Amino acid sequence: MEWALYGARLVHYVALVPLAGLLAWRLYGTAGAPTAQVVELRLRPAAVWLSVAALAGAVGWAAATVLAMAGSIEAAEPAVVSYIMTETGFGRLWLARLMLLAILAGALAAGLRTPRFRAVLALALVAALAGTGHTQVNDPPLRYWHMAGDALHLVAAAFWIGGLAPLWLFLRTETDSRQLAAALHRFSAMGYIAVAVLGVTGLSNMLLSVTDLSATLSTAWGRLLAAKLAAFGAMLLLAAANRFRLLAALERRGSDTASLRRRLQGHVAAEYALGLLVLALVAALGMSALP
Protein backbone atom coordinates (compact mmCIF):
# COMPACT_ATOMS: atom_id res chain seq x y z
CA MET A 1 0.00 0.00 0.00
CA GLU A 2 2.88 2.36 0.76
CA TRP A 3 4.30 1.96 -2.74
CA ALA A 4 0.85 2.51 -4.27
CA LEU A 5 0.50 5.73 -2.30
CA TYR A 6 3.97 6.90 -3.32
CA GLY A 7 3.24 6.09 -6.97
CA ALA A 8 0.02 8.11 -6.88
CA ARG A 9 1.72 11.03 -5.13
CA LEU A 10 4.57 10.92 -7.65
CA VAL A 11 2.22 11.01 -10.64
CA HIS A 12 0.21 13.83 -9.10
CA TYR A 13 3.24 15.99 -8.28
CA VAL A 14 5.13 15.53 -11.57
CA ALA A 15 1.95 16.25 -13.55
CA LEU A 16 0.26 19.06 -11.62
CA VAL A 17 3.25 21.22 -10.62
CA PRO A 18 4.76 21.43 -14.14
CA LEU A 19 1.25 21.93 -15.59
CA ALA A 20 0.62 24.94 -13.33
CA GLY A 21 3.91 26.55 -14.30
CA LEU A 22 3.33 25.80 -17.98
CA LEU A 23 -0.06 27.54 -17.87
CA ALA A 24 1.35 30.49 -15.91
CA TRP A 25 4.28 30.97 -18.31
CA ARG A 26 2.08 32.42 -21.02
CA LEU A 27 1.04 35.26 -18.71
CA TYR A 28 4.59 36.60 -18.30
CA GLY A 29 7.05 34.72 -20.48
CA THR A 30 6.47 35.98 -24.00
CA ALA A 31 4.92 39.48 -23.89
CA GLY A 32 3.01 38.89 -27.11
CA ALA A 33 5.83 37.40 -29.16
CA PRO A 34 4.35 35.86 -32.36
CA THR A 35 6.16 32.59 -31.68
CA ALA A 36 4.31 32.25 -28.38
CA GLN A 37 1.15 31.19 -30.22
CA VAL A 38 3.08 28.40 -31.94
CA VAL A 39 4.50 27.29 -28.59
CA GLU A 40 1.05 27.29 -27.02
CA LEU A 41 -0.45 25.19 -29.81
CA ARG A 42 2.35 22.64 -29.55
CA LEU A 43 2.04 22.41 -25.78
CA ARG A 44 -1.77 22.17 -25.67
CA PRO A 45 -1.87 18.34 -26.02
CA ALA A 46 0.80 18.03 -23.31
CA ALA A 47 -1.24 20.28 -21.01
CA VAL A 48 -4.34 18.14 -21.53
CA TRP A 49 -2.47 14.91 -20.78
CA LEU A 50 -0.79 16.43 -17.74
CA SER A 51 -4.19 17.46 -16.37
CA VAL A 52 -5.54 13.94 -16.92
CA ALA A 53 -2.46 12.46 -15.23
CA ALA A 54 -2.84 14.87 -12.30
CA LEU A 55 -6.48 13.84 -11.92
CA ALA A 56 -5.58 10.14 -12.09
CA GLY A 57 -2.84 10.64 -9.52
CA ALA A 58 -5.27 12.43 -7.22
CA VAL A 59 -7.78 9.58 -7.51
CA GLY A 60 -5.04 7.04 -6.75
CA TRP A 61 -3.82 9.15 -3.81
CA ALA A 62 -7.35 9.27 -2.38
CA ALA A 63 -7.89 5.53 -2.88
CA ALA A 64 -4.60 4.57 -1.24
CA THR A 65 -5.25 6.94 1.67
CA VAL A 66 -8.77 5.60 2.21
CA LEU A 67 -7.50 2.02 2.23
CA ALA A 68 -4.76 2.95 4.70
CA MET A 69 -7.30 4.64 6.99
CA ALA A 70 -9.74 1.74 6.70
CA GLY A 71 -7.02 -0.78 7.46
CA SER A 72 -7.78 -3.25 4.67
CA ILE A 73 -9.69 -3.64 1.42
CA GLU A 74 -12.35 -5.68 3.21
CA ALA A 75 -12.91 -2.92 5.77
CA ALA A 76 -13.30 -0.25 3.07
CA GLU A 77 -17.06 -0.58 2.87
CA PRO A 78 -19.12 2.18 1.20
CA ALA A 79 -20.13 3.64 4.58
CA VAL A 80 -16.48 3.79 5.69
CA VAL A 81 -15.36 5.36 2.43
CA SER A 82 -18.19 7.90 2.61
CA TYR A 83 -17.24 8.83 6.17
CA ILE A 84 -13.55 9.31 5.31
CA MET A 85 -14.29 11.41 2.23
CA THR A 86 -16.97 13.62 3.81
CA GLU A 87 -16.13 13.82 7.51
CA THR A 88 -12.33 14.08 7.59
CA GLY A 89 -10.18 17.06 6.68
CA PHE A 90 -8.31 15.08 4.03
CA GLY A 91 -11.52 13.77 2.47
CA ARG A 92 -13.22 17.15 2.19
CA LEU A 93 -10.07 18.76 0.78
CA TRP A 94 -9.64 15.95 -1.72
CA LEU A 95 -13.23 16.02 -2.93
CA ALA A 96 -12.84 19.73 -3.66
CA ARG A 97 -9.51 19.14 -5.41
CA LEU A 98 -10.94 16.30 -7.53
CA MET A 99 -13.82 18.52 -8.65
CA LEU A 100 -11.48 21.40 -9.55
CA LEU A 101 -9.06 19.07 -11.34
CA ALA A 102 -11.94 17.75 -13.44
CA ILE A 103 -12.93 21.34 -14.32
CA LEU A 104 -9.34 22.17 -15.27
CA ALA A 105 -8.97 19.04 -17.43
CA GLY A 106 -12.27 19.80 -19.13
CA ALA A 107 -11.31 23.41 -19.82
CA LEU A 108 -8.00 22.34 -21.33
CA ALA A 109 -9.54 19.55 -23.42
CA ALA A 110 -12.22 21.91 -24.73
CA GLY A 111 -9.60 24.52 -25.61
CA LEU A 112 -11.39 27.28 -23.73
CA ARG A 113 -9.64 30.62 -24.28
CA THR A 114 -9.34 31.51 -20.63
CA PRO A 115 -5.58 31.40 -19.97
CA ARG A 116 -5.69 33.44 -16.78
CA PHE A 117 -8.47 31.30 -15.27
CA ARG A 118 -6.65 28.07 -16.11
CA ALA A 119 -3.37 29.31 -14.67
CA VAL A 120 -4.94 30.60 -11.45
CA LEU A 121 -6.93 27.37 -11.00
CA ALA A 122 -3.86 25.18 -11.54
CA LEU A 123 -1.74 27.27 -9.15
CA ALA A 124 -4.52 27.15 -6.53
CA LEU A 125 -4.58 23.35 -6.82
CA VAL A 126 -0.82 23.29 -6.28
CA ALA A 127 -1.10 25.57 -3.24
CA ALA A 128 -3.86 23.37 -1.78
CA LEU A 129 -1.37 20.51 -1.47
CA ALA A 130 -0.12 22.37 1.60
CA GLY A 131 -3.24 21.12 3.39
CA THR A 132 -1.76 17.60 3.58
CA GLY A 133 1.33 15.98 5.04
CA HIS A 134 3.73 17.42 7.57
CA THR A 135 2.04 20.81 7.75
CA GLN A 136 -0.58 19.12 9.92
CA VAL A 137 1.85 18.19 12.71
CA ASN A 138 1.74 21.69 14.20
CA ASP A 139 -1.04 23.09 16.33
CA PRO A 140 -2.70 26.39 15.40
CA PRO A 141 -1.54 29.07 14.80
CA LEU A 142 1.81 27.51 13.71
CA ARG A 143 -0.08 25.07 11.50
CA TYR A 144 -1.50 27.94 9.45
CA TRP A 145 1.91 29.59 9.17
CA HIS A 146 3.37 26.25 8.06
CA MET A 147 0.60 25.73 5.50
CA ALA A 148 1.05 29.25 4.10
CA GLY A 149 4.80 28.75 3.79
CA ASP A 150 4.37 25.36 2.11
CA ALA A 151 1.77 26.78 -0.31
CA LEU A 152 4.14 29.57 -1.34
CA HIS A 153 6.98 27.05 -1.64
CA LEU A 154 4.96 24.86 -4.00
CA VAL A 155 3.71 27.76 -6.12
CA ALA A 156 7.25 29.13 -6.51
CA ALA A 157 8.43 25.66 -7.56
CA ALA A 158 5.61 25.47 -10.11
CA PHE A 159 6.59 28.79 -11.67
CA TRP A 160 10.23 27.77 -12.00
CA ILE A 161 9.97 24.09 -12.95
CA GLY A 162 6.81 24.41 -15.01
CA GLY A 163 8.14 27.37 -16.97
CA LEU A 164 11.13 25.42 -18.24
CA ALA A 165 9.24 23.27 -20.79
CA PRO A 166 7.66 26.20 -22.68
CA LEU A 167 10.94 28.11 -22.40
CA TRP A 168 12.78 25.17 -24.02
CA LEU A 169 10.26 25.03 -26.85
CA PHE A 170 10.44 28.81 -27.29
CA LEU A 171 14.24 28.57 -27.58
CA ARG A 172 13.82 25.83 -30.16
CA THR A 173 11.22 27.74 -32.21
CA GLU A 174 12.12 31.44 -32.00
CA THR A 175 14.90 32.69 -34.30
CA ASP A 176 14.86 36.40 -33.42
CA SER A 177 17.69 36.91 -30.92
CA ARG A 178 15.97 39.99 -29.46
CA GLN A 179 12.81 38.00 -28.69
CA LEU A 180 14.94 35.20 -27.24
CA ALA A 181 16.82 37.60 -24.99
CA ALA A 182 13.61 39.31 -23.87
CA ALA A 183 11.98 35.97 -22.97
CA LEU A 184 15.08 34.87 -21.06
CA HIS A 185 15.17 38.15 -19.15
CA ARG A 186 11.52 37.77 -18.16
CA PHE A 187 12.09 34.17 -17.07
CA SER A 188 15.18 35.20 -15.09
CA ALA A 189 13.25 37.97 -13.33
CA MET A 190 10.62 35.42 -12.31
CA GLY A 191 13.40 33.03 -11.31
CA TYR A 192 14.94 35.53 -8.87
CA ILE A 193 11.61 35.84 -7.08
CA ALA A 194 10.99 32.08 -7.14
CA VAL A 195 14.43 31.25 -5.72
CA ALA A 196 14.04 33.84 -2.95
CA VAL A 197 10.61 32.46 -2.02
CA LEU A 198 11.88 28.87 -2.15
CA GLY A 199 14.82 29.69 0.10
CA VAL A 200 12.84 31.56 2.76
CA THR A 201 9.87 29.19 2.84
CA GLY A 202 12.09 26.10 2.67
CA LEU A 203 14.01 27.21 5.75
CA SER A 204 10.79 28.14 7.54
CA ASN A 205 9.18 24.81 6.73
CA MET A 206 12.21 22.87 7.96
CA LEU A 207 12.31 24.75 11.26
CA LEU A 208 8.59 24.13 11.76
CA SER A 209 8.91 20.43 10.91
CA VAL A 210 12.11 19.33 12.65
CA THR A 211 12.53 19.21 16.40
CA ASP A 212 16.07 17.74 16.42
CA LEU A 213 18.26 19.20 13.68
CA SER A 214 21.32 17.25 14.83
CA ALA A 215 19.61 13.95 14.03
CA THR A 216 18.30 14.99 10.63
CA LEU A 217 20.86 13.27 8.39
CA SER A 218 20.54 10.01 10.30
CA THR A 219 16.93 9.64 9.16
CA ALA A 220 15.40 8.78 5.79
CA TRP A 221 13.64 12.16 5.79
CA GLY A 222 16.94 13.96 6.30
CA ARG A 223 18.69 12.05 3.51
CA LEU A 224 15.82 12.76 1.13
CA LEU A 225 16.01 16.43 2.08
CA ALA A 226 19.76 16.46 1.43
CA ALA A 227 19.20 14.92 -2.01
CA LYS A 228 16.51 17.51 -2.75
CA LEU A 229 18.85 20.35 -1.75
CA ALA A 230 21.63 18.92 -3.94
CA ALA A 231 19.32 18.80 -6.96
CA PHE A 232 18.09 22.31 -6.18
CA GLY A 233 21.71 23.52 -6.01
CA ALA A 234 22.46 21.96 -9.40
CA MET A 235 19.42 23.76 -10.85
CA LEU A 236 20.73 27.04 -9.45
CA LEU A 237 24.12 26.51 -11.09
CA LEU A 238 22.53 25.83 -14.48
CA ALA A 239 20.23 28.84 -14.10
CA ALA A 240 23.21 31.06 -13.22
CA ALA A 241 25.14 29.83 -16.26
CA ASN A 242 22.14 30.59 -18.48
CA ARG A 243 21.65 34.08 -17.07
CA PHE A 244 25.20 35.34 -16.67
CA ARG A 245 27.08 33.52 -19.44
CA LEU A 246 24.85 32.30 -22.23
CA LEU A 247 22.33 35.14 -22.19
CA ALA A 248 25.14 37.71 -22.08
CA ALA A 249 26.80 35.99 -25.05
CA LEU A 250 23.49 35.93 -26.91
CA GLU A 251 23.04 39.68 -26.44
CA ARG A 252 26.63 40.42 -27.53
CA ARG A 253 26.47 38.28 -30.63
CA GLY A 254 23.10 39.45 -31.95
CA SER A 255 23.24 37.02 -34.89
CA ASP A 256 24.57 33.53 -35.64
CA THR A 257 23.08 32.31 -32.39
CA ALA A 258 22.35 28.69 -33.35
CA SER A 259 25.11 27.23 -31.15
CA LEU A 260 24.11 29.37 -28.17
CA ARG A 261 20.48 28.35 -28.59
CA ARG A 262 21.47 24.68 -28.58
CA ARG A 263 23.50 25.15 -25.41
CA LEU A 264 20.63 27.01 -23.75
CA GLN A 265 18.22 24.26 -24.78
CA GLY A 266 20.52 21.66 -23.26
CA HIS A 267 20.82 23.59 -20.00
CA VAL A 268 17.07 24.15 -19.78
CA ALA A 269 16.38 20.46 -20.46
CA ALA A 270 18.83 19.47 -17.72
CA GLU A 271 17.20 21.97 -15.36
CA TYR A 272 13.80 20.47 -16.10
CA ALA A 273 15.05 16.92 -15.45
CA LEU A 274 16.48 18.04 -12.11
CA GLY A 275 13.18 19.77 -11.32
CA LEU A 276 11.28 16.53 -11.89
CA LEU A 277 13.76 14.77 -9.60
CA VAL A 278 13.06 17.40 -6.94
CA LEU A 279 9.32 16.72 -7.26
CA ALA A 280 9.90 12.97 -6.96
CA LEU A 281 11.84 13.59 -3.76
CA VAL A 282 9.10 15.90 -2.46
CA ALA A 283 6.56 13.13 -3.03
CA ALA A 284 8.71 10.81 -0.92
CA LEU A 285 9.45 13.42 1.76
CA GLY A 286 5.76 13.80 2.54
CA MET A 287 5.58 10.11 3.43
CA SER A 288 8.73 9.95 5.56
CA ALA A 289 8.70 10.24 9.34
CA LEU A 290 10.07 13.52 10.66
CA PRO A 291 13.25 13.37 12.79
Low-confidence stretches: none
What portion of residues belong to β-strands?
A: under 5%
Largest sheet: none
Element pattern in H and E:
HHHHHHHHH
Give me the number of helical elements: 9
Label the structural class: mainly alpha
Task: Quote the average pLDDT.
Answer: 87
- Termini separation (Å)? 23 Å
Shape: globular
Specify the oligomeric state.
single chain
Tell me the total number of β-strands.
0
Helix content: over 70%
As a whole number of angstroms, the C-alpha radius of gyration is 20 Å
Structure description:
It contains nine helices and no strands. It is globular. The mean pLDDT is 87. Helix 2 runs antiparallel to helix 4. The chain is mainly alpha-helical and 291 residues long. The two termini are 23 Å apart.
Record keyword descriptors for this entry:
291 residues; globular; mainly alpha; 9 helices
Summarize the structure.
Helices cover 81% and strands 0% of the residues.
Write the layout of secondary structure elements.
Elements: H1 2-28, H2 34-70, H3 78-87, H4 89-110, H5 115-127, H6 142-173, H7 177-209, H8 220-253, H9 258-285
